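Continuing from the previous page...

OK, I double-checked the sequence for Anoctamin against my notes and this is the correct one:
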Amino acid sequence: MAHKAWMKTVPTENCDVLMTFPDSTDDHTLLWLLNHIRLGIPELIVQVRHHRHTRVYAFFLTATYESLLRGADELGLRKAVKAEFGGGTRGFSCEEDFIYENIDNELGFFSSQVGTGGTGVPELAARGVIQQLFPLHEQRILKRLMKSWVQAVCEAQPLDDICDYFGVKIAMYFAWLGFYTSAMLYPAVFGSILYTFTDSDQTSQDISCVVFAIFNVIWATLFLEEWKRRGAEFAYKWGTLDTPAESLEEPRPQFRGTKRISPVTSTEEFHYPPWKRLLFQSLVSLPVCLACLASVFLLMLGCFQLQELVLSVQELPRVLRFLPKIILAVIVTACDELYKKVALWLNDMGAL
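Thanks. Re-ran it with the corrected sequence; updated structure tokens here:
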């Protein structure tokens, strides 16, 4: 509700990212974070507002074009290079900013997926200091996507526009989804034809099943190979083909360890001894997982025994015959919630 309420407020000019806080946040914490953000990124423009309906504070954040360029340099953000300088994409560098396409367009050089934020945001969000952090939507672009994408019928998806607005991950997903949907046309047509011309006798049906299975094996192989090629084209086009996987992932805020210099990258990082992790996995994670599996097995076995007992008694009402199945459904639901919490706890404790 807080998210929806903030979206209904009067827009603050020159705002790109909205950061909200729990209603229990005190003024001292807000001032500390505000000073921390301004000291870390002096060019960042922060406006503080209070929403009277939800009783929470929010920071409206934006940044100057120069600070965004410096941030792109620090992150190694890949941008398109002008044709006279070799074309393709490469990590952005402020020292050679003149070689990049559209560098003079302050509104168009960075796509909508590029946001701003303070340092330490993931850890503060994990600790509950920050409630939400999200970029504000561009209604003009959303309306254009609504017409060219959502409301369009039998037209190709505007994947480049999707990538510019939602980011590479979202665009890659819908690229795969569109490719998969189109590829499914071949087994659908072949299966329909095969079903139409198959006789009703068992021999013809068996032969059709074997033929259709062979077709699916060939189709699946060609589908995977074609998507590898198509996915590589999109990755190259959107500048993520040579991007290391670790640069696309946010650091895990719950991670704890001692600071050290990485022997690989020569940069400062947190290090947790592997023997401690192995010790926890052996003495805690493994026994807990085995206990969970054993309890599930015993509960299911008990439900099956109860089902046999109920079916053996002929005098019981018909409604009571469904009682073991209802109990099993309740047990499955309860175990799902319980094991989800256990899995999160094991993940947080065992991967420190």
